[in-house]
Each structure stands twice: as structure tokens, then as C-alpha cells.
Amino acid sequence: MGTILTAAPRRPRPTVAIAAGWAAALVAVAVVGALGSDTSSTWYRELDRPSWQPPGAVFGPVWTTLYVLIAIAATLATRSAPARRRGLVVGLLAANLVLNVGWTWIFFRAHAPVAAGVEIVVLLATIVALIRVIAPHHRGAALLLVPYLAWVSFATVLTWTIAATN
């Protein structure tokens, strides 16, 4: 009788390696985003901005908190998604981070609030998609993205308000 050979189950990558990868990606997003921000430019200072826009000092702490939550959510989602869905999760996360950085450069460097408004709607859609794709595999990871969804929703309204008034 022949021996039945079965492949040993693939061991998942250690959580620390996954977390380090996502942390590095989010630090890169933060740095590239910060390099693209220019609130001291004449163009930005002359924009008609709504009175309800938060003061500049709010943005750093908010984004730092959101990036930490995104990194944790990405780690949990990547670790818990079944192999057949992991590529989708990673792809959506990567697209989301590119869009996240892109908004800053489109708005502040290209001086294009309407284009930034269109781009942020796509960014928002990727956050919704991420929550929907991640939730069946790790509800906690999906919930960690809700503050990001809320902030980007607010930023979408702010972006379109600035685009409409300028």
C-alpha cells in the first residue's frame, strides 16, 4: 500500500513581522503625507475655509491616532483573513494608503481642491470596502477602522466645502 503524502499546514507569519510591516507602511504614509502638506503657502492661507474647520494643531494627533488604529487593524485583518481573501485585504489596504497620501499632494501641492474632492470620495469608498471585507474575518479589526471612516467622512465634507467656495 502506498503512503499518502499530505503537505504540512503552512504556518502563518508571526504577528510581530506582520505588525512591523504595517507599522513601517504607516510611518512611510505619515512622512510622505507630511512632506506634501503645506499650510503655510500663500495659496492655502488665501483659501476661503469654513469656520468649523479644526485648528491645525488637531490634525497631527488625530492622524497619529488613526495611523496606529489602521496599523493594528491591518495586522489583525492580514493575520485572520483566510488565504483566499488575504490578497484582497492587502490590496485594499495598499490602495487605501496610496489614496491617503495622494489627497495631501493633490490638495496642497497641486492646489486642486476639486480633484482632491474626487480623490477623497474614492479613499472613502476603500475604507467602506475594507470594513466590509474585514468584518467577517475579524470584527475588531473592522471596528478599529470606524474612526478612520468618520474622520475621512468629515474631511470629505471639508474638502468639498473648500472646493465649492474657492
TrEMBL record:
It is a multi-pass membrane protein. Keywords: Membrane, Transmembrane, Transmembrane helix. Gene3D superfamilies: TspO/MBR protein. It is found in: Membrane. It holds the Pfam family TspO_MBR. The chain crosses the membrane at residues 16-36, 56-76, 88-108, 114-135, 142-163. It comes from the Bacteria. Belongs to the TspO/BZRP family. This is TspO/MBR family protein. It comes from Patulibacter brassicae. The lineage of its organism: Bacteria, Bacillati, Actinomycetota, Thermoleophilia, Solirubrobacterales.
